[in-house]
Hints:
This protein is mainly α. Helices cover 72% and strands 0% of the residues. It is built from 15 helices and no strands. It has helices spanning 17-40, 49-84, 98-105, 116-129, 133-146, 148-158, 164-184, 195-206, 211-243, 246-250, 256-270, 277-282, 290-303, 305-311, 317-341. Helix 3 (98-105) packs parallel to helix 5, helix 4 runs antiparallel to helix 5 and helix 9 runs antiparallel to helix 14 (305-311). It is globular, with a radius of gyration of 20 Å.
Amino acid sequence: MATTSRTAAPRPTRSGAPRTLVALGLGVVVVAALFAIDAFAPSLFGASLPTRAQDGLTLTLSVLIESLPFVVLGVILSIIVQVWVPPGAIERWMPRTPWARRAVLSLLGMFIPVCECGNVPFARGLMMRGFGVSDTLTFLVAAPIVNPIVIISTHAAFGFSDGILVARLIGGYLVANLIGWLYSRHPSPDSLLTERFLATCEIVVQERGGRGRRTLAQFVVELRSVMPALIIGSVLAGAVQVLVPRSALLAIGSDPALSIAAMMILAIVVSLCSNVDSFFALSFASTFTPGSIVAFLVVGPIVDIKMLALLRTTFTARVLVGLTVVVLLSAFALGTVVNLLV
């Protein structure tokens, strides 16, 4: 079957105090790191501390502003799926065989022109309808790579040169289905989800009233779930970019293996929207290998800092670690193959 029942009893939600303490702690760590670098290794950065702090704030706001419209669009699409699409309308079009269903779901992103940020609330909506964890993960990994805007922007940046566009699409599709298959083997799928999300599912199931009231209620619930994660992820992405010298990554760009590792780290750090990351990667094309560019374009939409923060609203930390390991190993293998063939 394409769906699974998720009607567990409500679980107590945790207090917001620990989250606040974590956010404050991260802020203190970032500020302390800036002062430590300025005091003990001033030669790592050409700019002064105030300039780097301003750059960090600018980068944080740019990531947040770039992502916010897609998050809101994703929430709207999620509500449409949950409230306005009749029960069974999506499910009846899905194959019953698990691998075939995941293969279809991994192509669903071609019809949803949002980046990875908007796909998270949309995927939450699929699970609230009853879609399985492995099916949803397959969609989440593939959608930001195979969506139409990403395909167009990647072609505009690279065309068909060095097989970068083809490798990105095929690689993203295969990685998504690999992850879906791996998590389909898990004996207890609901244990992969956070208690907070399971409680949210229960609230949605029990929500009463007309479609208008349910739409407004679900809009508030989803924004309250994803906005704190988006803000924290944006802050981390901005902070890491001013704490890690870009020159350290560029120095190893010509090495076939190290260049792949460097670009994967860069993809995680800069946390760009998948709709525009191709043009950022284009600036490295003259100094980095084609395989490293492909690895950057595959890793970024799946496990960058911002995306991991958003995924944490739904999936446990263990899932995020496993997802990151599989994506990095797969992207490294894909980049190596591209370097050998080009």
